[in-house]
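Retro notes (design track)

What went well: tokenization of the new backbones is finally stable.
What didn't: we kept losing track of which sequence belonged to which structure.
Fix going forward: every design gets posted as structure first, then sequence, in one message. First example under the new rule, 394 residues:
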């Protein structure tokens, strides 16, 4: 957390006082330093505790984003782009009061004016570090957008450059005068030395629109070209990412459709009806499976046994017709199938009255003769006594 400007301006004085006290601690007995002695005693007694040094904020896995940003900054192998930005010395180059005082004394005006003239001479001589320190005096006495901009200019001409310090001063200048074209151009230049191509392009364009400067035109062209190239790279990367996400969604949808189709096929083939040969339903019976009562009945082992038996010997169903659990189910099946149990091996029906072709005679009827003569007679006139209806069985 940065120090407030009102506190930062006293850091240098406090540091000097501590250095003096290190050499002569007895000075703490002076009544004028009673406030400091009381403060120190509070720590020694334990009534005050040193605040913990704040840890760096936990970053939410931003290492990849940071490395990508650094790659963009340094992607042009520009020797003028700093690999690591400067650290602003807030004590050496203090800021002025914020907000600036409405009424400035004559003494402060004179102090600021004298400092600015001295700084101008130092800048002309190329002594930008001394000029920046002198302008700090002017800023503390009477801050203005122009004075902040001049100190920012010194930061950018120092060796090594101090672009972060320049940006801080330009921000302060633009707070006092948002239409300062010079401050915008200087901030854009600072961003250029940090490799912040987007911010540099934006600030330079705004500054040139307010107050055009031929000397900045070459730099603006370079910055705009690089920002355009970075935008093109970003667009291509974003398009590739979108395509990859669409492909992933397409694959997921195809997989979901495949699984749904498998589930549908599995359901329609009734894998649970393993009593039938092959584990499935006889042909022609798929529609019957939509009847919930029949489906429930099929879970009865006796019904399944009867159906399984019928697959190899249709006539065997006759013995189940009188069973109170199986008979009603078979009757319902025949009714739904138009009076017969077609589709089973051996053919079960389609017989009038719901009969079962091929079943042996029951009851008191005569037994037909065997042999060729009997076959001929059967062809001439069918003997209905050999068939019995469901009603007769019941």
């Amino acid at each position: 957390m940065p120090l407030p400007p009102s506190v930062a301006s006293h850091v240098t004085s406090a540091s000097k006082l501590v250095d003096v006290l290190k050499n002569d601690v007895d000075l703490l007995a002076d009544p004028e330093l009673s406030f400091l002695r009381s403060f120190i005693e509070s720590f020694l007694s334990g009534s005050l505790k040193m605040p913990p040094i704040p840890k760096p904020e936990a970053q939410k896995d931003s290492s990849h984003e940071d490395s990508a940003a650094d790659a963009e900054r340094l992607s042009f192998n520009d020797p003028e782009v700093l690999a690591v930005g400067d650290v602003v010395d807030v004590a050496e180059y203090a800021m002025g009061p914020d907000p600036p005082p409405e009424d400035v004394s004559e003494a402060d005006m004179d102090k600021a004016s004298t400092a600015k003239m001295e700084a101008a001479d130092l800048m002309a001589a190329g002594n930008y570090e001394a000029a920046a320190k002198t302008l700090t005096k002017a800023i503390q006495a009477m801050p203005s957008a122009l004075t902040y901009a001049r100190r920012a200019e010194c930061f950018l001409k120092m060796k090594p450059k101090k672009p972060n310090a320049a940006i801080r001063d330009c921000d302060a200048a633009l707070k006092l005068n948002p239409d300062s074209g010079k401050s915008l151009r200087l901030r854009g230049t600072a961003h250029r030395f940090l490799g912040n191509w987007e911010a540099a392009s934006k600030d330079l364009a705004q500054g040139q629109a307010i107050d055009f400067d031929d000397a900045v035109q070459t730099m603006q062209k370079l910055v705009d070209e690089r920002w355009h190239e970075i935008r093109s790279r970003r667009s291509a990367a974003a398009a590739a990412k979108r395509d990859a996400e669409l492909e992933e969604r397409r694959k997921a949808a195809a997989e979901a459709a495949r699984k749904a189709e498998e589930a549908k096929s599995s359901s329609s083939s009734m894998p649970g009806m393993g009593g039938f040969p092959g584990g499935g339903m006889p042909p022609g019976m798929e529609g019957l499976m939509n009847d919930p009562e029949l489906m429930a009945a099929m879970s009865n082992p006796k019904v399944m046994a009867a159906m399984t038996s019928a697959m190899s010997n249709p006539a065997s169903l006759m013995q189940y017709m009188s069973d109170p659990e199986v008979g009603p189910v078979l009757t319902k099946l025949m009714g739904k199938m138009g009076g017969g149990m077609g589709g089973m091996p051996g053919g079960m029906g389609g017989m009038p009255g719901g009969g079962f072709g091929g079943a042996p005679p029951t009851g008191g009827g005569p037994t037909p003769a065997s042999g060729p003569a009997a076959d001929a007679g059967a062809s001439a006139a069918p003997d209905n006594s050999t068939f019995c209806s469901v009603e007769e069985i019941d």
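Added context from the reviewer: Residues 5-45 form one domain.
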